[in-house]
Specification:
Blueprint (H helix, E strand, L loop, with lengths): L3 E4 L2 E4 L4 E7 L8 E7 L6 E6 L6 E3 L7 E6 L4 E6 L8 E8 L9 E2 L3 E6 L1
Length: 120
Amino acid sequence: QVQLVESGGGLVQAGDSLRLSCVDSGRTFSGYARGWFRQAPGKEREFVAAISWSGGSTNYADSVKGRFTISRDNTKNTVYLQMNSLKPEDTAVYLCAAGSRVLRGEADYWGQGTQVTVSS
């Protein structure tokens, strides 16, 4: 079964950190780039970050550059998003994604999402 499972979301204060994880539980996306998107209430889904299969290439939205870091551990089929210096405007549902175009901000497969709420 195709399944991307996110975890690590929660309620934090501005300036705090969180680390999100996304497991490819079915080892379905071996060889694929993986990424993170987010969707805030009333807003369109937006690209956050992506990483190639090897980890050698990454891409970030301008709004998170310098604060967020994407990484992966292929032995665990897991991609991480380390989020530092969180701001209230980072509040959103964060979705894990996979696909051949993720590094360009387009995804074919999605997880269910994990809620991140940043209070001021």
